[in-house]
Amino acid sequence: MSPADLQLWNALRAKTAPVANPFMSPEFCQAVGRVRPGARVAVVREDGEAAGFFPFERGRWGRGRAIGLGVSDCQGAVLHPDVHVDPHQLLRASALSVWEFNHLESGQDLFLPFATGRFASPVIDLSSGYTHYENLLRTRSRKFLKSALAQNRRLGRRVGPLRFVFDERDPAALRTLMTWKSAQYRRTGRRDRFAQDWINHLVRILADTNTPDCSGLLSVLYAGDRLVAAHFGLRSRTVLSYWFPAYDRDFAPFSPGLVLHLRLIEAAAAAGIDMLDLGRGDAAYKDSLKTRELTVHEGALLRRSPGAVLHWFSREPARAARRFVREQPRLKTAAVHILEAVGKVRDRRP
């Protein structure tokens, strides 16, 4: 893509999206393109001029998916508000039989009719500053805040003076975080994302990316000389996407992840971040920290073709089963217990 295309892409996002999520930036798509050979961007033109961009990944039989699907927390197309596109024609022009998404942002009217599920994505509004946010926590999550502040003091007193670095550039700290996160995935019975080479390489590329609309941000918490917790995410001018948090299990009694959350939120507010996007997914800490929720969608746009049929049979029955489990509290709890049991078996393996 030309520099003019990149400039237009960012200008369209600024015009059409109230939230400048870095996953929708051209820089994120370019990074994915370096590790995923099927990554493409379809350019929508009107009267010969570029008027929009549709990033995707193409697989066999024209089976497409949102770019970075599996790690991307915000998906869709970037279009001029006055441009009208037929979604099926867009797929045909992109040589796709299907386009799958699981974090489609609200406002993507082109694709919303094809959504089969919607999910809450909790966020923290920091537009009024950290002091205002902390006062909200004292009202809405008083017990959580009290516990976090107490653990902050305990960790510093028992282990060593605390030092928080908002933008850490030490590659060793990133490697440590990825090791911790891999262990967490295995321990909880989930697929280890960092065992996939493309995700491993993508994170390293993004760690070296530094542009106004997409920058890798590694934030770390030290206690004395020990690295005890870390988070790697993406930021734009105004949004920080919470992505890969982890901590040293040796210090679990001190809740270093909890301490990191508050330090990170305070530093983000000081750096001009208006919103911290905690991402889709259930977690007690997200419920305690959030100020409101966005909505993201999953589903697929299909056109009649062999590739679309293959997609339906390979994905939709499993998607429907997951949706059914999520909607039944007892089944959802049982599924979590099963994953934890699988994780314990993995941990016992030599």
TrEMBL record:
Q: Which UniProt keywords apply?
A: Acyltransferase, Transferase
Q: Tell me one GO molecular function of this protein.
A: acyltransferase activity
Would the keyword Acyltransferase turn up in this protein's UniProt record?
Answer: yes
What enzyme class is recorded for this protein? Answer: transferase
Decide whether keyword Cell inner membrane is in the record.
Answer: no
Stretches assigned to the BioF2-like acetyltransferase domain: 148-286
Which Pfam families does the entry mention? Acetyltransf_6
Question: In the Enzyme Commission scheme, what number(s) does this protein have?
Answer: 2.3.1.-
Protein name, as recorded? GNAT family N-acetyltransferase
